[in-house]
User: Which sequence fits this backbone?
């Protein structure tokens, strides 16, 4: 009997120990689960806090594009200064040749007169009067000499004036040559900067995986499509269209993506000089972007718009910023084909609106002359110049 009680007590103790161990294991498992869940939550939080690689790449590329546009615009300004100075120097060189010949001829004439004056002035007027046998004849000759002296003084004054003109031309030529040199030096530096920016853009792309590049391309396309739709809708809303016959789709207003399809009609077809300018610009699509280019083999952004409107008989200044100062300001919602659209703070890029929320422009050396969405770059304003 005692032995049975001892066995029963031992059994209960063993069962209690197993229960304790089991309970401890469950607690450990529960704590472990908490740690795992906490780790997952923390991991998710960390991932959410990390900037999206594709979004960051897109932002970097947009920034590089804006900086490149500014470099391109500075190159255009340097080219404009170079062209102006070169043209001025060509004119000055011609004027210098003629002026030098004119001054040299006057110098020879004055040299002869100076020698004659010196030779006749060797004896004083008093002595010549005393030794003269005929005072009347002497006074007559003296009057003639005085007239010659007056003429000499006049010619000498003219010579001095023409010599001053010659010096001004020489200074202008020197200034033009200095401008040409500084412009070319600036262009060399800007080209290096532009190539460096292209390298920066390539580095951004190289850091992306193939999947991320695909996402980037889709994000860029979506942003361009959205901007195009917004511009098209704005044009559609701001344009007064004739009433459509009853029962036709024309009586229904359109917005968003649908507006993009109808905006060409809503913004009106190009006509007159605008049609000529737009036809010229569109004929260059596929052609190269050339730094400082004004055609016919290649263009920069303002060179293309200048040439296009020039073909329509409208003279525009050389740079994008200068073109922004001409014509009549128009809102984006009032754009018509042929209008000029300007981009980036400080105005460093210009394009031509072609309707349907689209533009044609000399974009950059990589893309050349192409079409795109009117809203694919930050818009600063628009002008109607025709």
Assistant:
């Amino acid at each position: 009997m005692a032995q049975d009680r001892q066995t029963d007590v031992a059994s209960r103790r063993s069962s209690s120990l197993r229960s304790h161990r089991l309970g401890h294991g469950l607690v450990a498992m529960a704590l472990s689960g908490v740690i795992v869940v906490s780790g997952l939550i923390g991991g998710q939080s960390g991932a959410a806090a990390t900037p999206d690689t594709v979004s960051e790449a897109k932002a970097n590329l947009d920034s590089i594009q804006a900086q490149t546009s500014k470099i391109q615009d500075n190159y255009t300004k340097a080219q404009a200064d170079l062209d102006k100075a070169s043209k001025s120097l060509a004119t000055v060189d011609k004027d210098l040749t003629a002026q030098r010949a004119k001054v040299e001829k006057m110098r020879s004439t004055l040299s002869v007169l100076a020698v004659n004056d010196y030779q006749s002035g060797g004896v004083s007027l008093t002595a010549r009067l005393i030794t003269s046998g005929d005072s009347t004849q002497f006074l007559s000759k003296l009057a003639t000499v005085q007239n010659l002296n007056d003429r000499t003084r006049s010619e000498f004054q003219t010579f001095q004036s023409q010599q001053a003109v010659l010096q001004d031309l020489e200074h202008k030529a020197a200034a033009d040559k200095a401008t040409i040199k500084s412009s070319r030096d600036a262009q060399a530096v800007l080209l290096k900067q532009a190539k460096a920016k292209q390298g920066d853009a390539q580095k951004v792309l190289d850091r992306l995986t193939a999947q991320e590049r695909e996402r980037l391309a889709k994000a860029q396309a979506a942003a361009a499509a959205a901007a195009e739709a917004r511009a098209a809708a704005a044009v559609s809303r701001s344009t007064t269209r004739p009433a459509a016959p009853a029962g036709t789709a024309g009586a229904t207003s359109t917005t968003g993506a649908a507006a993009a399809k109808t905006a060409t009609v809503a913004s009106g077809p190009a006509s007159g000089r605008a049609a000529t300018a737009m036809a010229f610009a569109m004929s260059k699509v596929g052609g190269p972007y050339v730094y400082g280019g004004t055609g016919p083999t290649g263009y920069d952004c303002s060179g293309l718009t200048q040439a296009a409107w020039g073909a329509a008989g409208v003279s525009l200044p050389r740079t994008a910023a200068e073109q922004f100062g001409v014509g009549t300001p128009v809102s984006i919602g009032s754009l018509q084909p042929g209008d000029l659209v300007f981009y980036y703070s400080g105005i460093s890029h210009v394009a031509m609106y072609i309707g349907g929320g689209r533009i044609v422009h000399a974009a950059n050396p990589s893309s050349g002359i192409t079409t795109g969405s009117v809203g694919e770059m930050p818009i600063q304003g628009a002008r109607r110049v025709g």
Q: What stands out?
A: The beta strands are 328-330, 340-343, 349-355, 358-364, 368-373, 379-384. Residues 268-384 form a domain with the endopeptidase fold (from Nostoc punctiforme) fold (CATH 3.90.1720.10). The CA atoms of residues 331 and 384 lie 10 Å apart.
